[in-house]
Amino acid sequence: MSDQQNNLPANPEVPDWSRRQFLIGAGGITVVALGALFAKSPIAAAARAITGTPVSQGLTKVYAGDFYYIPNHMTWRVGDNISLLFTNESPNRFHEMMIGQGFDTTPSLTGEVKTQFHTDFWDGVHVTVADASSVDNLATNLAIVKCDVNPHPWLITAPGNGNFSPTLMPGGHILLNFTVPNKPGVWQYACFVQGFVHYRAGMRGTINILPA
Ligand SMILES: [Cu+2]
Questions:
Q1: Tens-digit pLDDT profile for residues 147-177
Q2: In this structure, are residues 152 and 133 in contact, taking their beta carbons and an 8 Å threshold?
């Protein structure tokens, strides 16, 4: 008998090797396919939210889609320098990114509608706009903003225009450089475009800011 014959399974009707190969093969394909889908899905972000994320430093990318952020959970640390590259990947919708705590609301026929965050993360923070394309507007509110991109007709510097918030046209991006301020704790980010519809549809995430 050859080695091959010796290795034949006892029951040829249910060959162990093929079942095992099938499982491994199918598993591998599934992992690859899922990986491709998973990387862009809100589920992936949810999984990261559960398992935790590494501390973001330097270039930190946030993508907006219809209607989600990738990632939807981040960890920052007080005193770290961050270049936040916010990109709108939607082909046809505007999206923004506010960061804050608590909510301001306004009554509506269907109940209270969240309009923005009550506490604006960016208040008093020095921010440099280092790059921008297809920006609809950047309301600076109480942030101290230096804009290296010219011209910038989209910059709204007067307070009273709501939270600090870049709103991007489809395909737009903005690069914000800043040092994480001494505001440790859990913060939320969200898009309140179209009267809270985007927020409700899933455009929200959390940032856990660690102390220095
Ligand atoms: Cu949005």
A1: 999 999 999 998 788 999 999 999 999 999 9
A2: no
